[in-house]
Amino acid sequence: MIRLEIVRDAFLDCIRNGRLLLLHIFANPVLFGLFALWLLIPVASGFHLLLNFIVAVGLLGVVITLHAGTLNYYSDCQFGGTPYFSPFRRALRHLLPVAVCLAVFCVLWLSVEKLESFQITFPAYLRSTFPVSLRRHVTQSSLESMFTAAIFFLRWILVPAFVLPLTFQAADRGFRGFGKDGLSAWSKTVFNLSFWIVLFVGALIGVLGSGKIMALTPDFKTSTLHGELASLTVRLPIAYLLGLFPWLLACSMVGRCGLTADRGSDVPGNAGA
Question: What whole-number distance in Å separates Cα of residue 140 and Cα of residue 104?
């Protein structure tokens, strides 16, 4: 059943929590910059290989703590009185189970990516199986567009929809999130139509919307270097915010949908616990 009040409350959570929004606005570019610096570390010796490994693990731990802590934060907000750093400390304690969910996500993501190699061949084969009367009305380009849309759905909606709720349970409860209570909360989220609507709209805005903004480049025949820099300066922050806010909205939605009956007793600062 669609419950638009859940979507509304999740949206308001993203607006009310200005500190968390600012944290993501500034922390993600910093982490991306550190990742770019990590790529510059040479691999010429055993020491450099060890340094590469240590820095990579450290960066991955910080990224997981930031985003898993965000899932915990939005969930804790439902009970009120939660210390600001408590959700991130809990995520830090549960790094390993969250990393397991991340590994599952990467495997599924790479599996979907392999399907892109059939972008031309599969629609052509599928159309060849159609009767002549149907081929007259269905072009190969339309089948290719449908195949592209299916890949988009798998990559940006279906895979996150199945992994993100489980990641929240792992970030909140550790390996207990893979148990009966965690799977029950996972199914509660996955079978919530409002959750799918949020993911669908978020994918359209965060992926397609930000991509369209970044594609609005000036005409190279008439533009100048200063004009292109000014255009990039305007487009980049807008595209970044269009990609960031749907992610926070999805985290807030997962936190609301994935609450369990015993969840309130585990939240620090909950007066009713």
Answer: 34
| Whole-Å CA distances, 214 to 65, 120, 151, 246 | 29, 26, 21, 17
Q: What is the pLDDT along the chain (273 residues), one digit of tens a residue?
A: 456 777 888 888 888 888 899 999 999 999 999 999 999 988 888 888 999 999 999 999 999 999 999 999 998 887 765 677 899 999 999 999 999 999 999 999 999 989 988 988 999 889 889 888 888 888 889 999 999 999 999 999 999 999 999 999 999 999 999 999 899 999 989 999 889 999 999 999 999 999 999 998 887 778 888 888 888 999 999 999 999 999 999 999 998 888 754 454 444 444 333
Q: Which of 260, 255, 248, 261 is nearest to 77 (CA)?
A: 255
DSSP state of 82: -
Helices (H), the chain: 4-16, 18-39, 46-76, 86-93, 95-114, 121-128, 132-135, 140-153, 159-173, 180-190, 193-203, 210-215, 225-257
